[in-house]
Structure formats: structure tokens, C-alpha cells
Inverse folding.
């Protein structure tokens, strides 16, 4: 029996990527909505309630509306918007963070897919907090770069316009008022008392992301070294299919002494790179903002939810 899947908002970047990852899957039946009815509440309600799994690839308010349209108690909803990420009644869709996250995903009918920047941030901060390397009041700061696809259709059109503004040739920092929409989940899921200082940049390449967090050893309650922090992360993510901790710098981990942000583009992989020295330890998480940071994470959660191999549809490039 094929599971019935509806993607509400499939015309957007994330929706299209999710659909692409379903190619050649014989265990899924994709429910189609007519183009002229894709914003029709009655038709969306019919398809949502006819599905086994509905993906929401919509702005926050539209996602909340779609949830309200669901009256079938058997329907499982995966929301890729910001709307439900800090709602304790929803599972947070990052199974590698902890076994409790994976178990809640497996049992839940409501899953909030993490934000792309938040995925990289939490892949670092969650273990730092879990193992007591930093305390909840640590002044976390974060620097991150992303391809322009993270800005959605409008940004893609702007960057791919042949008559575009020359400023787009360079990285551009944004969220200058420190009010980025991912901050609530970064703080709450990360177990922090305060929101981090977060400096994201949008850059002139399509997809891929690198999120970096520095740690000052002198501010830690317990002495840590570069190697001791690396050992904690290597143990925490040991055996994970999609999240890998690379060997320490200087051990042949990188071909060149640079960390590229698009090395994992079009995959569901995430790599954590730990570098620096015993005084200033840097932790970087790189992945595809459209993969492990969006569509790939959503499909991975669906696989866990349905009890199929979590790698299904996620091992190749898309």
C-alpha cells in the first residue's frame, strides 16, 4: 500500500525539493492540487484530510491555517515554516540531536522541521549544553553564510537577474536588528537563557551553508581543550547516518585550509568541523540549506515517522 502524500505549497523552493526527493519512490502516492485551486481552502482541506502525510511549505500564517483545516486525526503533518518550532506539542525534527528527539518524531503526528540556520546552530550548541561544556548563560555568538536560495523565490529571482545590483556580487550581512526568525528555536531548543548574537550573510551562490560558533575556554566553568571538545562531539554523533564529525584540523580533514560552504550542496549530509586552539575553539556545521536544512530533513523525519529506512530517497544528490 502506498502512503498518500500532499504537499501544501509545493510551488516554493522547499516544496519543489521535497517533491524531487520522492522521484522513483514506489511507496508514495502524491496527491495533486489543480493550479487554480492551490489557494482554495476547501480543496486544500479535502487533500489534507485525504492524505496520510501532509507537508506544509508555506508562510507561518498559511501553515497555521492548514493545520486548522485538518480534521482527520490520522493525518500526520510536517511543517517547514517557523509557526510551530517552539510549540512543545510538536516534535522538533532533528533526530540526531538526541534519542528523545528521534523517539518523539517517531510517535508524533505533528512535526516542526527546523530552520536551516537553526539546524547548524543546534548541531553545535545542543551538545555543548548537554555535556556541560557551556552553561545556559554563556554569551553565544554565531556567524553564518548561506547561498541565496535560502531567501526563497524573491531572492533567487533577484540574484539570477542579469541586470542585478552589483552589491549582490559580495556577501551581504542581514538581520541587522538581531531579530532573525530562527532565534526563538535557537534559544529554546538550545537550552540557552539568552538569544545569541547572530550574524547571517547571504552570498552569491545557490545553495549550501556554514554556521560557525566560537567558544572561549577562559569563560568555561570546566577546563576544555580543542581535543576534549572534539571527543565529545565525535562520541555524540557516532553512528549517525547524515551527521559526521570530521577529524581534527591538521589530520588530513581538508584538502585546503579553508571551509567551503557549498561542499555538501544537493545532499542531506551535515559535517561538523572543530578547529582553532585550546584558548579559542571554533565549531562549524556545514550542510545544504535546502537539504539537511529544509527538504532533506523533512523527508528524513517522514521516513522515521512511517517506519521506513531513514535514508530512503536521501542518499544521492538531488
Amino acid at each position: 500500500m502506498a502512503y498518500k502524500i500532499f504537499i501544501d505549497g509545493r510551488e516554493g523552493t522547499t516544496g519543489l525539493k521535497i517533491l524531487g526527493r520522492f522521484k522513483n519512490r514506489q511507496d508514495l502516492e502524491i496527491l495533486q492540487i489543480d493550479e487554480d485551486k492551490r489557494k482554495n481552502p476547501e480543496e486544500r482541506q479535502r487533500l489534507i484530510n485525504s492524505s496520510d502525510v501532509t507537508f506544509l511549505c508555506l508562510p507561518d500564517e498559511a501553515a497555521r491555517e492548514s493545520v486548522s483545516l485538518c480534521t482527520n486525526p490520522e493525518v500526520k503533518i510536517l511543517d517547514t515554516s517557523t509557526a510551530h518550532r517552539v510549540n512543545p506539542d510538536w516534535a522538533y525534527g532533528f533526530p540526531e540531536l538526541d534519542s528523545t528527539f528521534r523517539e518523539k518524531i517517531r510517535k508524533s503526528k505533528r512535526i516542526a522541521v527546523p530552520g536551516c540556520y537553526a539546524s547548524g546552530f543546534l548541531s553545535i550548541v545542543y551538545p555543548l549544553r548537554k555535556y556541560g561544556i557551556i552553561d545556559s548563560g554563556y554569551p553565544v555568538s554565531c556567524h553564518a553564510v548561506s547561498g541565496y536560495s535560502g531567501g526563497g523565490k524573491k531572492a533567487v529571482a533577484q540574484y539570477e537577474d542579469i541586470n542585478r545590483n552589483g552589491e549582490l556580487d559580495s556577501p551581504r550581512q542581514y538581520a541587522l536588528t538581531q531579530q532573525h526568525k530562527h532565534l526563538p528555536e535557537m534559544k529554546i531548543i538550545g537550552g540557552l537563557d539568552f538569544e545569541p548574537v547572530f550574524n547571517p550573510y547571504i552570498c552569491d551562490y545557490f545553495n549550501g551553508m556554514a554556521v560557525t560558533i566560537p567558544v572561549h575556554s577562559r569563560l568555561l566553568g570546566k577546563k576544555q581543550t580543542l581535543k576534549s571538545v572534539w571527543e565529545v562531539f565525535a562520541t555524540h554523533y557516532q553512528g549517525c547516518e547524515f551527521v559526521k564529525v570530521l577529524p581534527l584540523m591538521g589530520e588530513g580533514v581538508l584538502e585546503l585550509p579553508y571551509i567551503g560552504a557549498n561542499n555538501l550542496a544537493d545532499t542531506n549530509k551535515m559535517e561538523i568541523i572543530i578547529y582553532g586552539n585550546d584558548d579559542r575553539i571554533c565549531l562549524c556545521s556545514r550542510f545544504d540549506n535546502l537539504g539537511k536544512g529544509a527538504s532533506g530533513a523533512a523527508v528524513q523525519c517522514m521516513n522515521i515517522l512511517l517506519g521506513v529506512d531513514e535514508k530512503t530517497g536521501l542518499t544521492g544528490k538531488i
About this structure: The first helix runs from residue 13 to 21. The longest strand covers residues 209-216. The chain has nine helices and 13 strands.
